[in-house]
Amino acid sequence: MSRETPLHFRPPGRADGAAIHQLVERIGTLDRNSCYLYLLLSAEFTDTCVVAEAEGGLLGFATGLRPPRRPASIFLWQVGVDPAGQGRGLGKRLVRALLEAPGARDATVLETTIAPSNRASRALFQAIARERGAEITASEYFREDHFPPGHEAEALFRIAPIR
Ligand SMILES: CC(C)(COP(=O)(O)OP(=O)(O)OC[C@H]1O[C@@H](n2cnc3c(N)ncnc32)[C@H](O)[C@@H]1OP(=O)(O)O)[C@@H](O)C(=O)NCCC(=O)NCCS
After folding, report:
1. What is the pLDDT of residue 3?
2. How far is the CA of 79 from the centre of ligand 1 (A)?
3. Given the CA of residue 92, which atom of ligand 1 is nearest to it?
4. Whose CA is nearest to atom 7 of ligand 1?
5. Whose C-alpha lies nearest to ligand 1, atom 27?
6. What is the DSSP string of 93-154?
7. The CATH number, out of the four listed (3.40.1280.10, 3.40.50.720, 3.40.630.30, 3.40.50.2300), of the domain defined by the range 8-160
8. Per-residue pLDDT at 4 exceeds 60
């Protein structure tokens, strides 16, 4: 991907679920969920998800949901950029696009979970907090022993206010 590759940010549709699943496979480091899960997100959670499309296909995606018990929050579940496009600002553009998605634009808190070893993810959310002058707080969420063996803990990061 060159810096000039034109990108189109849009909500996913049913036709994108399988391509998001393949992108997750290409990225390699994300939890691999079933294709059905990405189809479901692309059919029922389109207002809180976004894909970045280039001429050759999808280059990135971000999936989110509104936690029912924390109505001010948008919970960003997975964000991923094709390995060929990483480190060029696309992750930040995806998070910004997600925050402006129809189902997220009234949220005042951005939440996500980050594993301790994921430096890129931490840097991404620190950059988003910095550009909005927001504070980041971290708390325990899923401990290592909540997962099957071999998965790191995932702490909950709350970034607020995001606007
Ligand atoms: C995390 C991810 C989405 C970031 O997307 P990206 O397009 O590479 O990130 P950006 O280019 O927008 O960079 C965002 C910030 O993170 C920093 N960054 C990016 N990759 C980094 C790395 N590997 N190590 C440290 N910092 C990194 C950038 O310097 C930038 O910070 P800055 O604005 O202060 O300069 C991408 O690396 C990815 O898909 N990783 C694999 C999947 C994953 O772990 N997703 C997150 C958990 S769901």
Report:
1. 57
2. 10
3. 12
4. 91
5. 120
6. HHHHHHHTSTTTTT--EEEEEE-TT-HHHHHHHHHHHHHHT-EEEEEEEE-GGGSSTT---E
7. 3.40.630.30
8. yes
Ligand 1 neighbourhood includes 138 CB (under 6 angstroms): no
**Which residue, by CA, sits nearest to atom 18 of ligand 1?**
120
* E strand or H helix that includes residue 81: strand 73-81
Q: 90 is written with which tokens? A: 């696309």
Q: What is the pTM of this model?
A: 0.97
- Which pLDDT value is given to residue 1? 59
Average pLDDT, the chain: 96
Model pLDDT, residue 56: 87
Instruction: Give the count of beta carbons closer than 10 Å to the beta carbon of residue 8.
Output: 10
Domain boundaries, the chain: 8-160
How many H helices and E strands in the chain? 4, 7
